[in-house]
C-alpha cells in the first residue's frame, strides 16, 4: 500500500455551485481509502502568498457542506502568483511571486497540490507544474468554456437558474406585451445563454460567437407580431455585441489590480437601446448577475463534482501530476493541464444552434 500523503487544496477564480461537493468527495475518499491528510488553503493562490491562510482540512470540516454554494475555502480571482498585485505607494505593481509559492508548498510539507478552478486557476497550475510543483487540477465554471472537458460543474446549476428566470419573465412579458432582454453570464462563450435560452423558450438568443444585427432582431420581432405574439424574450450573453460594435465592458483589466481579464456587463442595455430606436413596444432589461453563481448546486453538479473530487485521488495514486480531471464521453479521466489553456466556444454550425434555428429561434445574424 502506498504511503499516505499530505495534500494542499485550494479553490481559485469565481466561485460556482459544486465546489464544496468536490472538496467533500476529495477529503472523504482521500482519508478513508488512502489515509491522506489535507491542508485547506484559503482564498485561492493568495493563501500560498500571504501568511496565516492555511488550516487542516479533515472529514469533520466536510460535514453538511454538500448542498452549500460558494466554497468553504474562500476564493480569489485576483491572486495570480505570476503577476501578483502588491500595493506600492498610492498604486499597485504586479510582481512574480511564483518561486515564493513553490517554497511555501515545501514549507508546508505538501506532497502535492489540488487546484480547483477555471481557465485562470488551471493555467496558473500548469505554469507551477512547469516549475516542478506537483499539482493536479479540477475544472469548474458556470461558463463551461474549458476545452479539456465535456462539461464543468456549476454549469448545470446556472442553466437551471437562468431557465427559471426566463420562465418567470415569460408571464410578466406576456401580461404587458413587453420585450424582455435578459443579460446572462458566460464571458466570451455563449453556452449558458444558448442552453438556457433553448430550455427557457427564448425567441432570440444572442451569443458572442454570432455578432448580431439590429435589422435581424427587428425581423424576428415582426415575424412574431404577425403571429399575434406581442411579447418577446431576448436572451443575450454578457459577451454578445452588435456586428461592427464593441464588447460591453464594466471595468478594464488595467483598472482591476491583479486581474488579467476585463469585467463584462451592459450588453443587455446596449441591445435594448438599439432596439428602442426602432420599435414602440416597451423594453425592459434584466441582468441576472451573480444570482447565476450563488446557492445550492443541482443534483447533477453535486454528482459531477463528487466524481471529480474522488477521481483526483486516482491521479495522485498514479503519479499523474500536471494533469486535471475531466469528463470525456461520460467518463471521468485524466487529461494534461495544458488542455485547460485552450478555450472552448459554441460551435455555430453544431446541432444545437441548427436545431434552434429550425424551430424559429433567431440568433440575430
Ligand atoms: O467565469 C465565471 C463568471 O461568472 C463569468 O460568467 C463572469 O463574467 C465573471 O465570472 C464575473 O466575475 P466577477 O464575479 O469577478 O465579477
TrEMBL record:
Sites marked Important for substrate specificity: 120
Superkingdom field: Bacteria
Pathway: Carbohydrate degradation; glycolysis; D-glyceraldehyde 3-phosphate and glycerone phosphate from D-glucose: step 3/4
Single Gene Ontology BP annotation: fructose 1,6-bisphosphate metabolic process
Binding positions for ATP per the UniProt entry: 14, 78-79, 118-121
Compartments, as annotated in UniProt: Cytoplasm
Positions that bind Mg(2+): 119
InterPro entries associated with the record: ATP_PFK (IPR022953), ATP_PFK_prok-type (IPR012003), Phosphofructokinase_CS (IPR015912), Phosphofructokinase_dom (IPR000023), Phosphofructokinase_III (IPR012829), PKF_sf (IPR035966)
GO cellular component: 6-phosphofructokinase complex
EC number: 2.7.1.11
Pfam family for this entry, one: PFK
Keywords, sorted A to Z: ATP-binding, Cytoplasm, Glycolysis, Kinase, Magnesium, Metal-binding, Nucleotide-binding, Transferase
Single GO term (MF): fructose-6-phosphate binding
Binding positions (substrate): 141-143, 178, 185-187, 238, 284, 290-293
Needed co-factor(s): Mg(2+)
Active-site residue list: 143
Catalyzed reactions: beta-D-fructose 6-phosphate + ATP = beta-D-fructose 1,6-bisphosphate + ADP + H(+)
Sequence ranges assigned to domain Phosphofructokinase in this UniProt record: 6-315
PANTHER family per the UniProt record, alphabetical: ATP-DEPENDENT 6-PHOSPHOFRUCTOKINASE 3, PHOSPHOFRUCTOKINASE
Assembly with partners or alone: Homodimer or homotetramer.
NCBIfam families according to UniProt: PFK_mixed, PRK03202.1
Family to which the UniProt record says this protein belongs: Belongs to the phosphofructokinase type A (PFKA) family. Mixed-substrate PFK group III subfamily.
Protein function: Catalyzes the phosphorylation of D-fructose 6-phosphate to fructose 1,6-bisphosphate by ATP, the first committing step of glycolysis.
Protein name: ATP-dependent 6-phosphofructokinase
Organism phylogeny: Bacteria, Pseudomonadati, Myxococcota, Myxococcia, Myxococcales
Amino acid at each position: 500500500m502506498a504511503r499516505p500523503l499530505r495534500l494542499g487544496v485550494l479553490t481559485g477564480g469565481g466561485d460556482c455551485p459544486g465546489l464544496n461537493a468536490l472538496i467533500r468527495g476529495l477529503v472523504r475518499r482521500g482519508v478513508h481509502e488512502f489515509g491522506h491528510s489535507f491542508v485547506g488553503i484559503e482564498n485561492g493562490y493568495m493563501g500560498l502568498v500571504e501568511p496565516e491562510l492555511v488550516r487542516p482540512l479533515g472529514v469533520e470540516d466536510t460535514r453538511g457542506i454538500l448542498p452549500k454554494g460558494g466554497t468553504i475555502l474562500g476564493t480569489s480571482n485576483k491572486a495570480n502568483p505570476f503577476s501578483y498585485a502588491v500595493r506600492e505607494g498610492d498604486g499597485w505593481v504586479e510582481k512574480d511571486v511564483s518561486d515564493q509559492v513553490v517554497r511555501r508548498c515545501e514549507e508546508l510539507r505538501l506532497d502535492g497540490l489540488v487546484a480547483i478552478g477555471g481557465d485562470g486557476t488551471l493555467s496558473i497550475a500548469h505554469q507551477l507544474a512547469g516549475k516542478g510543483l506537483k499539482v493536479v487540477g479540477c475544472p469548474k465554471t458556470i461558463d463551461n468554456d474549458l476545452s479539456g472537458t465535456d462539461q464543468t460543474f456549476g454549469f448545470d446549476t446556472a442553466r437551471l437558474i437562468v431557465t427559471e428566470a426566463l420562465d418567470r419573465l415569460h408571464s410578466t412579458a406576456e401580461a404587458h406585451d413587453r420585450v424582455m432582454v435578459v443579460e446572462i453570464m458566460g464571458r466570451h462563450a455563449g453556452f449558458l445563454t444558448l442552453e438556457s435560452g433553448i430550455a427557457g423558450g427564448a425567441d432570440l438568443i444572442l451569443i458572442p460567437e454570432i455578432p448580431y444585427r439590429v435589422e435581424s432582431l427587428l425581423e424576428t420581432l415582426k415575424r412574431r407580431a404577425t403571429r399575434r405574439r406581442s411579447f418577446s424574450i431576448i436572451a443575450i450573453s454578457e459577451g454578445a455585441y452588435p456586428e461592427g460594435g464593441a464588447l460591453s465592458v464594466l471595468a478594464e483589466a488595467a483598472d482591476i489590480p491583479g486581474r488579467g481579464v476585463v469585467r463584462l456587463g451592459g450588453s443587455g442595455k446596449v441591445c435594448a437601446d438599439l432596439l428602442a430606436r426602432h420599435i414602440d413596444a416597451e423594453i425592459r432589461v434584466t441582468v441576472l448577475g451573480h444570482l447565476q453563481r450563488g446557492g445550492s448546486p443541482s443534483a447533477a453538479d453535486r454528482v459531477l463534482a463528487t466524481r471529480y473530487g474522488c477521481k483526483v485521488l486516482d491521479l495522485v495514486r498514479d503519479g499523474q501530476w500536471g494533469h486535471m480531471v475531466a469528463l470525456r464521453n461520460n467518463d471521468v479521466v485524466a487529461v494534461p493541464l495544458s488542455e485547460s489553456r485552450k478555450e472552448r466556444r459554441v460551435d455555430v454550425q453544431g446541432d444545437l444552434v441548427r436545431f434552434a434555428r429550425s424551430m424559429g429561434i433567431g440568433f440575430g445574424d
